[in-house]
Amino acid sequence: MGEGVLKRYARYLPLTPDTPALSIGEGETPLVRSHHLAGELGIDDLYFKLEGCNPTASFKDRGMVVAVAKALEGGYTTILCASTGNTSASAAAYGAAAGIETVVLVPRGNVAEGKLSQAVAYGARVITLRGNFDAALAIARELAEARSVCLVNSVNPHRIEGQKTAAFEIVDVLGDAPDLLFIPVGNAGNITAYWKGFREYRDVGNAARLPRMMGFQAEGAAPIVEGRAIEDPQTIASAIRIGNPANWAGALAARDESEGDIGMVSDAEILEAYKLMARTEGIFCEAASAASVAGLIKHVRGGADVTGRTIVCVITGNGLKDPGLVQEIADRAPEEAPANVEAVARLLGEPVSGTSGGGGKRS
Ligand code: AN7
Fold first, then answer.
1. Ligand 1 pocket test target in 84, 103, 104 with most atoms within 8 Å of CB
2. What is the largest CA-CA distance in the chain?
3. How far out from the chain centre does Cα 37 lie?
4. Lower Cβ count inside 10 Å, N or C end of the chain?
């Protein structure tokens, strides 16, 4: 346990004897069975892949560890990325562990507080741009071409290589690929990587089948669904507020080769799934992550037959990244009381005296 992606999946990764053995404990994330949603939707086997359990609390760590190890091997002393937040947190962490400088370009006003705090804590140089993610990525790509900094966005193929290990883990646990994989889509690196991972595992005989890849974008930021770049993408799920995905072609290939689909869900549907995951599964995820669950709900409500199917939803990041968003689903404010038992008991509507208890227990 905790050996990391490079060691665990070495033979499937582009490593050489000179690649440093970098890890801060990424990978081996839980695949947990649904407690409630499965029953509600009539699904026999529904699992959540909890990528928020990675060291920086998002899926990005798997690809980042490979990208940064290869950057070290290549002699780079600076890594650079554009980010809606999670990539920057991950780059900053692995940059710190590797002992190199990290520069992150983030869109002003649209990065969740927790993610920015991480980049700052890990000591990255944070540059806030008066523009959106797509503009930031264009600048990062141009900078990396002209200077000796290593670009660690998912246009860097090493990111995809490391990221594909999440698909390996699902097969390792289930014994085969699921029938359907639901996954949020922003810059489309993740869906591209999962598809590569499933295919590679099938090709070496570790899986007998391939899943249908079901990607979901947010309605106001759905360039792949609409078939055109979106100039000014808008969604409450800031992580996937992306109008011109770098791995667009990879997403189309995953969709078409797997006979899957790339659809879109509204902010209201995303928030419904975000709330439902917390309230009925005990899983506090990011709004962007909830897009995969919203996509599943939409798929089933739309009449798809899911009986006998094994389904995995990829939960890409932890809800703690964006504590402010909880306001959107809060229907009970924290209450305050004096620090004595009578006052608290009164608040709970329980008799003040007597120790028979039982108020909070099932009889
Ligand atoms: C929680 O951090 O693009 O389709 O710069 O943070 O692989 O881009 C984040 C994307 C889904 C979409 N869920 O994945 C970034 C960034 C969460 C995310 C996505 C992101 P891709």
1. 84
2. 75
3. 20
4. C
The predicted-structure confidence for 100-153, as pLDDT tens digits, reads as follows: 999 999 999 999 999 999 999 999 999 999 999 999 999 999 999 988 999 999
86 within ligand 1 shell (Cβ under 6 A): yes
pLDDT in tens, 302-319: 999 999 999 999 999 999
Which residue among 51, 62, 86, 155 has the greatest number of ligand 1 atoms within 8 angstroms of its CB, and so is best to mutate? 86
C-alpha span between 343 and 356 (Å, rounded): 18
Asked if 61 and 118 count as a contact pair (C-beta separation under 8 A), the reply is: no
Q: In what order do the strands lie in the sheet with 212-218?
A: 31-33, 45-50, 310-315, 180-184, 212-218, 261-265
Is the separation of the CB atoms in 280 and 222 below 8 Å?
no
CA dist 90 and 290 (Å) reads: 20
Q: 146 Cβ partners below 8 Å, 6+ apart?
A: none
Q: Minimal CA–CA distance to 248: which of 220, 226, 269, 219?
A: 226
Distance between CA atoms of residues 278 and 315, nearest Å? 12
d(CA 283, CA 51): 11
Residue 50: pLDDT over 90: yes
Which residue lies with its CA nearest to atom 16 of ligand 1?
84
The encoded tokens of residue 84 equal 């809606």
Asked if residue 217 lies in contact with residue 106, where contact means CB atoms within 8 angstroms, the answer is no
Three-state SS string over 241-289 comes to: CCCCCCCHHHHHHHHHHCCCEEEEECHHHHHHHHHHHHHHHCCCECHHH
Count of beta carbons in the 10 Å neighbourhood of residue 120:
15
Strands (DSSP E) found in the chain: 31-33, 45-50, 78-82, 101-107, 125-129, 150-151, 180-184, 212-218, 261-265, 310-315
CA of 213 to the centre of ligand 1 (A): 17
Q: Beta 31-33 vs 45-50: how paired, if at all?
A: antiparallel
- Ligand 1: residue of 128, 274, 316, 321 to mutate (most ligand atoms within 8 A of CB) is 316
Q: What is the pTM (predicted TM-score) of this model?
A: 0.96
